[in-house]
Write a structure and sequence with these properties.
Chain lengths: 103, 209
């Protein structure tokens, strides 16, 4: 049985990762919109994003749109893969893959 | 949910449910009701081409008396209103998302705009020298042809079966209408074309959940 990725396996971060994974590959979302989709406080979201960034799962770009500074967030390739693996592991836990061996 | 979730216990079933719910709610909020994409156009066609048919009916007749300028003006106002609803709806959903989807959407929007600009410039040059019924047929048939092609292209871009099938349907409806001739074309496009868009919107809505 594979271990569940501890970076993803926490309620708040799992919600962040799922939301980012729902975006099309190559899309980035602004911090305030992400916050709105998740209904999280800015501080709370920042903490989780930093942990995800440290793990290399999330890429955060600080740019400018016109004159206003904007923070754009996206799931990295690595993050997307990690989430896919995590989902597979969860599925395997819920529905053990080798039913013949149980008898 | 705003408390720190690091320590919250999470078993596999909870995690699976959370993934499903969060994905569904994000998708719903990023892509609002798909009827916004179809119904404004559907109603514009149904009403606009319907009234055009009543004024410029087959064999040069007039089923309902009204000024000659009214049907086309009304059609263009309805189409402009549909474009506004559609544009505001998509821009609202996609606000604060940057990247490939946004670029895809804006290039697709530009192809509509430029396509219809070039079409109307070309038609404006030639239709004065045509009899009224043929000029009307040319305008509407070419507009529907371009619309059908762009719907098919949109289906190809987003791999959206509903959009692609609607494009095929509009193309077929257009051909039938052109073969039937001036007057009939407006009726066919109104009922089958506009109606087809309403049906496509209802189907997309069902799939969206």
């Amino acid at each position: 049985m594979s271990e569940l990725d501890p970076v993803i396996h926490a309620q708040a971060r799992l919600r962040v990762v799922v939301t980012l994974a729902t975006l099309a590959d190559g899309d980035r979302i602004t911090f305030p919109r992400l916050q709105e989709l998740l209904a999280m406080t800015p501080g709370n979201l920042s903490v989780h994003l930093r942990k995800l960034e440290d793990a290399g799962y999330v890429e955060i770009d600080k740019t400018h749109r016109g004159r206003t500074p904007t923070t754009l967030v996206r799931l990295s390739r690595r993050g997307r893969r990690a989430f896919e693996e995590y989902t597979e592991n969860i599925r395997a836990l819920l529905d053990p893959p080798a039913p013949r061996e149980t008898r | 949910m705003t408390t720190d979730g690091d320590t919250a216990p999470l078993d596999a079933a909870d995690a699976m449910r959370l993934i499903r719910e969060q994905r569904a709610s994000t998708a719903r909020r990023l892509e609002p009701d798909p009827r916004v994409h179809y119904w404004p156009w559907g109603f514009a066609w149904l009403i606009g081409f319907g009234i055009y048919f009543l004024r410029f009916s087959p064999d040069g007749r007039t089923l309902v008396a009204m000024p000659a300028w009214l049907p086309l003006t009304l059609l263009f106002v309805l189409l402009a209103a549909a474009a506004a609803v559609f544009g505001v709806g998509s821009a609202r959903a996609y606000r604060h998302v940057a990247g490939e989807s946004a670029r895809r959407g804006s290039w697709y929007g530009a192809s509509w705009g430029l396509g219809f600009l070039s079409l109307s410039l070309i038609l404006g040059r030639v239709t004065d020298s045509l009899p009224h019924d043929l000029a009307g047929l040319l305008w509407s048939a070419l507009s529907v042809a371009l619309t059908g092609a762009l719907h098919m292209a949109g289906g190809a871009i987003w791999l959206d079966r509903t959009l692609f099938r609607l494009g095929v349907w509009l193309t077929a409806v257009n051909i039938v209408g052109v073969l039937a001739g001036p007057g009939w074309h407006a009726l066919v496009v109104s009922v089958a074309g506009g109606g087809g868009m309403l049906v496509a919107g209802a189907l997309a809505r069902q799939r969206h959940g």
